[in-house]
Amino acid sequence: MTNCRARVLCPVASTLLFFTLFVGLATIILARGATGFDSFVRQGVQETASSGLTMVMAILTRLGSPIVLGPLSVVLFVVFRLAGRQGASSLLAWAMIGATLLENALKFSFQRVRPEPFFGIVAPETYSLPSGHALFSACFYGVVASALAARVANGFARAAIWICAVLLIAAIGFSRIYLGVHYPTDVLAGYILAAFWLSAVRLRTAWPAAIQKP
Predict the structure, then answer these.
(1) What pLDDT does residue 191 have?
(2) pTM, 2 dp
C-alpha cells in the first residue's frame, strides 16, 4: 500500500511543483522582469557564433520542429502498438497531443512577441512564449528515452539513454536561442511546461493502478 501511495504522490508533487514554477516564470516574464536576463544571455550566446556552429544549430533545431516530430510521433505510436506496448503508445499520444494543445493555448493567451532573429532568419509568425520546440522535444524524446530505458536491464545503458536524450533536448533548446527566434526564458518555460505535462500524464496512469490495489 505504501508503494501505491508513492506512485501517486510523487507525480502529484512533481505536477504541482512544475505548475507553480511555470506560473511563477510566466508572471515574471509578463511583468518584464526577465528582460535583462534575456538580453544578457542572447548577447552571450551570439558571441559564440560561427558559420560551422550555425549550420549545426540549423540542423538541430529541425529535430524539435512539429514538422519532424509530428510524423515521428505517429510512426512511433504505431510501432509501440504493433509491439504490444500499449502503455508507451498511450503515454506518447497523451504527451504530444497535450503538448500541442498547451502550446497553442498559452501562446495565444500570453501573446509575447518574438525577439529579432539572428543571421537574417525570418521570424516564425507564431508568438514566442512558450517555445514549442523546447516543449515538443522534451515530451517526445523524454517518452522515447523512458520507453527504451524500461527495456534495458543494464544501469549504465539506461543512464546513457537518458544522458543522450537530455543532451539532445538541451541542444534543441539552445538552437532556438542561438538562432535568435526565442528568448531564453521562452525555452526555459517550454521545458518546465513539458515537465509539468509529463508529470500530469504519469499521474493519469499511476492513479488507476493504485486504486486497483487491495
Answers:
(1) 98
(2) 0.90
